[in-house]
Structures are given as C-alpha cells and as structure tokens.
C-alpha cells in the first residue's frame, strides 16, 4: 500500500484561511452591522410593545365605556319608541 499524501487545511493555524478571513475588515464591518441591526431591532420591538400596551389600556379605559353607554342610549331610545307606538302617542322624529 502506498501512503496517501493529502494536504490538509489547518483551521486553527495563524496563517490558515479561516483566520485570515475572520481578520478581514469586510467581515469585521459585516459583524458590526449585524450586531447593530439586532440591537436596533430589539429596541424597536421593545418600544413597539410598550406603545401597544399603552394604546390597548387607553382604549379599554376610555373607549369601551363610551361604546357601552352609547349602546344603552340606543336601546333606551328604541324602547321609548316602542312604548310610544303601543300607547298610540305620535312619534316625534328627530
């Protein structure tokens, strides 16, 4: 059997391809840009969540009671019209 003489790329060597590529300014800038983008995205999602919480609770506190009161008023007006028609009183249109 003849010995196989194959060249191997040593990845941990100081002069290896991976060490040269990882020291490249392009890789450095790309990593920095990706880190910055992740940071901005995290902050944006956090702020969006806070804004959604504020909008949701404000809606529940201010708008829902208004909708309920308007529905009650509409039901009351319909009941008055129904009673007026049963009693024979002429209805007044607004």
From TrEMBL:
GO terms under cellular component: mitochondrial outer membrane
Return the InterPro entries for the record: Tom22, Tom22_pln
Q: Where are the transmembrane segments?
A: 51-68
Bilayer disposition of the protein: Single-pass membrane protein
Q: Which segments of the protein form a coiled coil according to its record?
A: none
Q: Which UniProt keywords apply?
A: Membrane, Mitochondrion, Mitochondrion outer membrane, Protein transport, Receptor, Translocation, Transmembrane, Transmembrane helix, Transport
Please classify the protein's predominant subcellular localization into one broad category. mitochondrion
The entry sums up its family as follows: Belongs to the Tom22 family.
Protein known as: Mitochondrial import receptor subunit TOM9-2-like
Q: Which organism is it from?
A: Quillaja saponaria
